[in-house]
TrEMBL record:
PROSITE patterns membership: HMG_BOX_2
Protein name per UniProt: Transcription factor 7-like 2 isoform X8
Subcellular location: Nucleus
Chain segments annotated as coiled-coil in the UniProt record: none
Native species: Salvelinus namaycush
Ranges of residues in domain HMG box: 352-420
CDD domains assigned: HMG-box_TCF7-like
Gene Ontology BP annotations: canonical Wnt signaling pathway; cell proliferation in dorsal spinal cord; endothelial cell fate specification; heart development; midbrain development; positive regulation of cell population proliferation; rostrocaudal neural tube patterning
Feature: compositional bias, Polar residues: 47-61, 608-624
Amino acid sequence: MPQLNGGGGDDLGANDEMISFKDEGEQEEKISENLSAERDLADVKSSLVNESETNQNSSSDSEAERRPPPRSETFRDKTRESLEEAAKRQDGGLFKSPPYPGYPFIMIPDLTSPYLPNGSLSPTARTYLQMKWPLLDVNHGSLQSRQALKDARSPSPAHIVGPFCLEFPGQSDLSLHQFQLSNKVPVVQHPHHVHPLTPLITYSNEHFTPGNPPPHLQGDVDPKTGIPRPPQHPDISPYYPLSPGSVGQLPHPLGWLVPQQGQPVYPITTGGFRHPYPTALTVNASMQSFLSSRFPHHMVPPHHSLHQTGIPHPAIVTPNVKQESSHSDIGLNSSKHQDSKKEDEKKKQPHIKKPLNAFMLYMKEMRAKVVAECTLKESAAINQILGRRWHALTREEQAKYYELARKERQLHMQLYPGWSARDNYAGNQQGKKKKRKRDKQPGEGNDANTPKKCRALFGLDQLSLWCKPCRRKKKCIRYIQGEGSCASPPSSDGSLLDSPPSSPSSVAPSPSSKESKPQTEQMQPLSLTMKPAHQPLHHPHLLAGHPPPPSLVLLENSAAAAGKMPGAAHNGAHDHGNVSSSRQPGSSGASLARPSAASLCHSHSLHPNSTAPQPLSLVTKSIE
DNA sequence: GAGCCTTTGAAGAGG
DNA sequence: CCTCTTCAAAGGCTC
C-alpha cells in the first residue's frame, strides 16, 4: 500500500509527498508489478542518486534519447496565441515520451554569470552547461540526438549550446570553446575540464573513477591563464563556489556522495574578472570569512575564519550594481567617483537568491534543448513545454531533480544559515519594487472550484472517504485518483471535484482571448504523456518520502481513462489545475486564457476516435 | 526600464 | 493545519 513514509529521512526535499498522482490507485496490478521498481526508487531516494541505478536506467534513457527529436518548428508568432500554438505543437513531438533522457546531464554553472564576483554578465544569467551523465549513456545514445540537434535549423545559437555538445560522456576532452552555456552568455570552457562541476560534482564520470582521476585533470592548470587550479572538492555544488583553500575541509552534507579526489576543477578562467570556481561544499573557514564580510552578521555562520577569497555564492546577486559598468569605469572615472560607487554598493545588500527547486533545475537544464528544438525563445512558451515535460518525466527522473534541489537547499542553508526566503520578498528589498500579480478578475477566483483536500472535502466525520494517505496524515494536498482516493470523488456528476467536462471533445476551443480563459482552461489538459512501454508505473504513494511528482498521470490510454475511470481522469486533471491556479491566481488566470499547447494536444489525443497515439497521461488544468 | 508571462516547487505569512 | 503569496529562471513582450 502506498505509504507516505515521511521518515525516510530523505524526502528528497520535496514537501510534496502528499501529492498524489492521477494514476494513483489506478491499477493495483500495475502497482504490484512495479513494486520492485518502487523499492528501487525508494532506495534511490534513500541513497539519492545512485550511480549503479543510474546506469541501469541508462538503457531506457538512451533509448529515449535515440528517439528522433521532435520536429523542429519555428514559432515566430509574437502573439500569445501563437505561443500557445507553438507549445501545443511541441507537445505533439515532445510529449510523446519524456524527452528527458534520464539524468545524464550535468549542469555546469555558467561561470561568467552572476555568481562570479566580477562577472560582466547579467546577474540574472545563471546558466549551466548541460552534460550528459557520463555513466549513463554511452555515446551511441546521444549521438543521434546530438546530430539531430546540430541539424536543427535554429537561428538561435542555442542549438549549439552546451547540452548537446556535452552529451558525450567519453569526451572529456571535448573542447567547449565553441559552445555557449546559454543563449545569452557565451562561455569559454576549458577543454580539459569538461566535467566541470555539476551541481553535484559527483555526477561526472570521473567521479566514479575511484582514485584515478584522468590525467588531464591532475595538475590542473588553466590553459589560458596558466594558473594552476586548486584541487576541487567534488561535492560542492557549482552554485556555491567556495574558495580554493576550503577544499575538502568540511564534510559534505551529502556524505553518500562520495567525492573523488582530483576532481576536475571547474573550468573557470582565473584571469580577468573570472574566478576559479572552487568547490568545497560546506561552509568552511573561507566561506565563513567571506560571508562575514559580505553579509549581515546574523546571516553568517558562527564559525569564523580567515580565507578571503571573496568568491560569492552563485546565488548572491548584488542588486542594482552593474558589473560591467563598474568594470569599464575603472581607469575612466575619478577615484572619488569610484569611492562613492563603492560606498553605494556597500550599502546595498547582496541579494541571496533562493535555491532552485527541482523544476527550476530541470528548466535550466532543458531550456536550451527546448530552445534549440523548437527555436522558441519566449520563456513563457518554453516554460509551458518544460512544465509538461516535467510531468512526463518518470519518477526516477524527477527524483533526481528533487534530489538535486534538496542538495541545493541544503547547501544554501549551510552557506546562509540566517537567510530566509522572506528576505527576498520585494517588500524587504531595498529599492526593489514589489512584484504584483495581476489582480484576479472577479469571476476568475478559483474559490468556486478550488480543489478541496480530503479534509475539506469530506470533513473529519467522513474520514472513510479520505484517501489513504490523507487518512494517515490527516491531511491531503492533492487529489488522488482512483484507489478510492478523495480525488475521484464519486463526483463525476458535478460535485466539488468534478471537473470540467470529462470529454475533451466537449471542450470549447476558443482560447484566443484571455476572457475565455477560464473555460478553456477548465477543459484544457495540462499535460499529456505517452507512457513508454518499458516504463514502470509508479504509484506515488509507494515511494515513501519520494518527491511527489506533481501530477504525473500514467494512464493506460486516454480512452481508458475517460471511459473506464471517468472520475479519475478528469478529477486528477482538475486537481492539477486547481493547484496551479490557486497557487498563482493572477498568472494562472492568464495562463488559462491561453489554449495551452498541452491542452490542445490532449483534447485531440483524448478523443475516442483519435488515431494518434494514445496519451498515457492526462492532466487537465481546471479553473473555475 | 519595470513588470508581465509561464511553469513547478519551496517557504513563509496569515487565518 | 490549510491557504495564499512570493520568489526562483528565462527571454520576449508590453506599457
